[in-house]
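Recall the central idea of this unit: under ordinary conditions, the amino acid sequence of a chain determines the structure it adopts. In this exercise we apply that idea directly, starting from the sequence alone.
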Amino acid sequence: QVQLVESGGGLVQDGASLRLSCAAFGRTFSSYAMGWFRQAPGKEREFVAAIGWSGDTYDVDLVKGRFTISRDNAKNTVYLQMNSLKPEDTAVYYCAADFWPRRNAQTMAAALEYRYWGQGTQVTASS
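Accordingly, the structure predicted from this sequence is:
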């Protein structure tokens, strides 16, 4: 059974940094794309960033230059480094993993592209 477990969320001040981790169990994801989404209260879940099987990345303009997605295949883990956090970044952040192997990050911006999801971790940036 595949399981994705996020960690690293918390309450921080405006401008602070956090690093989210997503550890995968039950399957080796080195050949699969993975991504991060977020959902703020009263809003739809939105794409944040993805990393392809070969390490290519793709993210949205709202986080460009502030957030960085990366992966450590030896640890079967994907990370989201978040710098210069703003109150509008406050949301539950979800990790997701692809079902089909060897896909690039640019094809992974839609939630329906992912088969596996974590339970989410809360990130709150206060002003």
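Residues 31 and 56 are 12 Å apart (CA to CA).
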